[in-house]
UniProtKB/TrEMBL annotation:
One Pfam family, short name: CRS1_YhbY
Location of the region described as Disordered in the Swiss-Prot/TrEMBL record: 19-91, 108-158
Residue ranges crossing the lipid bilayer per the database entry: none
SMART domains tied to this protein: CRS1_YhbY
Low complexity bias locations: 19-30
GO function terms (MF aspect): RNA binding
Domain CRM: 159-257, 279-347
InterPro entries xref list: CAF1P_plant (IPR044599), RNA-binding_CRM (IPR001890), YhbY-like_sf (IPR035920)
Coiled coil ranges: none
Protein name from the UniProt record: CRM domain-containing protein
Start-end of Basic and acidic residues biased regions: 145-154
Length: 347
């Protein structure tokens, strides 16, 4: 009985060629053979086909041609042209304005009350710029004459474009599938944007700029800084789409030196943007106006990274009939809400 039961268990686990009468003589022998069924026996043939390694055929060496036997000596790498040499550090730029992270979203007249990082850490990198970083900007080292700067800009722009030339450029670059496009977000006209514009101007006469977010509230400010910092000219403006022309006499080899910011500097600490008590009102009057504004219906709903070009006009119209105007900014970042409020206060 025991022999038959063991046989019925071991048959599914092992092939019939491995079952032999000696294995059924004792349980211990059966367990031993079962544990070592995959190990090679010392009496096995070392050249057993299932376990013998496959011999790899040696790779024959390809015949070398007479030219390959005597290779030519390696030539020294060609030197780069003089205009492509690696610039020596520290970099020097003749641009007359102070280098800041953003030009359109900051006010140079406001001074911070504190810093979130030590001012000695320059975003241009240690020893890469001959200007000293003061925590907000890198001031220009020398005083540039305004007359000379305006003369250089007018010489690059050349004669004004005719209507036919403007229409041709607008038709070429105003479409959404234009490859020469730069997107402006919450940061507005940043320092590295200037480098991007000049890179596009190497192969294109104009560049398409698409503005989104907070800068679209004051498009006049964006256009001013683009023309002032790059030396170009806005030839087309439609809501948040701009076309910036480089000029007739623009030479990419004579482009200004614009050192890049290697990281975004932390914003300094400024005084409170929205005061608790409005100017000219008492605390009770300010609280009453706020409660009234919270209970009034929203004039319009702002979306994240939207186009706010018509916000100022609608707020001015609403002020004709009401003292308080409410804007729904539930889907806008808190920092963007504060910037929107400050811009509306000044506009």
């Amino acid at each position: 009985m025991w022999r038959r039961l063991l046989l019925s268990v071991t048959v599914p686990l092992r092939t019939r060629t491995l079952i032999s009468p000696p294995l059924l003589s004792s349980p211990s022998h059966h367990l031993l053979s079962r544990s070592n069924k995959h190990s090679a026996s010392p009496h096995d043939d070392p050249h057993d086909p299932p376990f013998s390694p496959i011999a790899k055929a040696p790779n024959p060496k390809p015949k070398q041609s007479p030219k390959a036997r005597n290779p030519k000596p390696k030539q020294a790498p060609k030197a780069l042209p003089s205009g492509m040499d690696k610039p020596s550090l520290p970099l020097h730029s003749d641009l007359p304005f102070d280098f800041r992270y953003s030009y359109s979203e900051t006010d140079p007249s406001l001074r911070p009350i504190g810093y979130r990082e030590p001012p000695r850490f320059s975003p241009f990198g240690p020893g890469r710029l001959d200007r000293k970083w003061d925590g907000v900007s890198a001031p220009a080292t020398g005083e540039a004459a305004e007359d000379r700067v305006s003369d250089d800009r007018s010489s690059v722009l050349g004669d004004p474009l005719t209507e036919e030339e403007v229409g041709e450029l607008v038709e070429r670059y105003r479409h959404s599938d234009c490859s020469r496009q730069i997107n402006l977000g919450t940061g507005g006209v940043t320092h590295n944007t200037l480098e991007d514009i000049h890179n596009h101007w190497k192969r294109a006469e104009a560049v398409r700029i698409k503005c989104l977010g907070v800068p679209t509230i004051d498009m006049d400010n964006v256009c001013f800084h683009l023309e002032d910092k790059t030396g170009g000219k806005i030839i087309y403006r439609h809501i948040n789409i701009l076309l910036l022309y480089r000029g007739r006499n623009y030479d990419p080899k004579q482009r200004p030196v614009i050192p890049l910011m290697l990281w975004k500097p932390l914003a300094p600490i400024y005084p409170r943007l929205v005061p608790k008590v409005a100017e000219g009102l008492t605390f009770e009057q300010t609280k009453e106006l706020r409660n009234r504004g919270l209970n009034t219906p929203a004039l319009m709903k702002l979306t994240r990274n939207g186009v706010y070009a018509n916000v100022v006009e609608r707020v001015r119209e609403a002020f004709r009939t009401s003292d308080v105007v409410r804007l729904d900014c539930a889907y806008v970042y808190t920092s963007d809400c504060k910037k929107i409020g400050v811009k509306l206060r000044f506009l």
